[in-house]
Specification:
four-stranded mixed sheet, mainly beta, disordered N terminus, 5% helix
Length: 128
């Protein structure tokens, strides 16, 4: 198991890092957990990403928005999303298709998209 401080060192830099950390079946839904970190020296007040979920055959299962909320500078955050009607076992890939919202005081253009660092601790491939 990797400690938070070790992982935080791995993602430092002027970019946002998103790690698909876990998938958990919950009733008729899939709980998707992300570890996200803002490597900028300013806080991001709201970060919303457009995501495309693909099944194991490579077909688009759905397009959705993930609102990661506020991302304080250099502090890791865990965000969870419950996706109804999705079987975790059927998920093959997750694509961050773009940034819907990236706002905050003095947040530069591209702060949420430039050099986006994508990782996965699951069997699901993550693209960005």
């Amino acid at each position: 198991m990797i400690s938070g401080s070790v992982h935080a060192q791995d993602v430092q830099g002027t970019h946002v890092s998103i790690e698909l950390n876990a998938l958990e079946p919950v009733d008729d839904a899939c709980r998707i957990s992300f570890l996200i970190q803002n490597g900028h020296d300013i806080d991001i007040e709201q970060a919303v990403y457009e995501a495309v979920l693909f099944d194991k055959q490579g077909r688009v299962e759905r397009l959705t928005l993930f609102d990661f909320g506020a991302l304080p500078s250099a502090r890791p955050r865990v965000r969870q999303f419950l996706v109804p009607g999705l079987a975790c076992a059927s998920l093959g890939r997750l694509l961050i298709n773009g940034v819907e919202t990236c706002s905050g005081v003095d947040v530069p253009d591209g702060a949420c998209s430039d050099n986006l660092d994508m990782r996965s601790r699951t069997d699901v491939e993550v693209l960005g």
